[in-house]
Design brief:
Blueprint lengths: L4 H27 L29 E5 L2 E6 L2 E7 L1 H4 L17 E5 L5 E6 L7 E8 L4 E4 L1 E2 L2 E2 L2 E2 H5 L2 E3 L2 E4 L2 E5 L2 E6 L1
Parallel strand pairs: 8-14
Antiparallel strand pairs: 1-2, 2-3, 4-5, 5-6, 6-7, 6-10, 8-9, 11-12, 12-13, 13-14
């Protein structure tokens, strides 16, 4: 019975039905003259001008938990440093200069939450640590430098670090430029 006249007639009838249904949907869609868009006047984003701004972000939070220093900025979490003894994470060569700490970790965010200072100890009994500044907007970690050279800090100095606006202050040294707080100067 395969290839019979009845089977071909059924297939032709099905094709006409599908074509008619498609034409009906297109026709019904063409009857609507109203464009379906959300009401812009009630959305807060419509009040914001699309001009570039230099305002500092107020949407970042810094937290330390379970051996990880994290920054949650613009809805994305970024791990700045982790303790492999606590997290159990494997340490690879990628983290030889930055990204891991042992023992305590000193950290502090700038008042504008645009920068985060942190200092990584590489041994539990170490009296010095490697200091870094994370730029939240640029999403970049910079090593702390004095006159172009990387520095090591005493852990006590790192623990007492503070911010004067966006200028990092460590003991009596203050950052040369508040837009680059990782560059210390006298």
């Amino acid at each position: 019975m395969e290839g019979s006249r009845h089977e071909r007639a059924a297939l032709v009838g099905l094709a006409y039905f599908i074509g008619g249904l498609t034409a009906f949907i297109w026709y019904a869609h063409g009857l609507t003259t109203e464009i379906s868009v959300p009401d812009i006047s009630t959305q807060p984003a419509s009040l914001i001008q699309a001009n570039p701004t230099t305002d500092t972000p107020q949407t970042s939070t810094v937290s330390y938990h379970d051996g990880m220093l994290e920054v949650d900025a613009f809805g994305n979490k970024k791990i700045l440093s982790f303790n492999p003894e606590i997290t159990g994470a494997k340490v690879t060569d990628d983290f030889s200069n930055q990204g891991i700490h042992i023992g305590d970790l000193s950290y502090i965010a700038s008042p504008s939450e645009e920068y985060v200072f942190f200092c990584e100890k590489k041994e539990v009994t170490a009296s010095t640590c490697s200091p870094f500044v994370y730029d939240v907007v640029a999403d970049t970690i910079y090593p702390l430098r004095r006159n172009g050279d990387r520095v090591e800090l005493l852990t006590s100095a790192a623990a007492d670090a503070s911010w004067n606006q966006n200028s990092l202050q460590i003991d009596t040294e203050v950052a040369k430029d508040s837009s680059k707080p990782w560059l210390l100067g006298y």
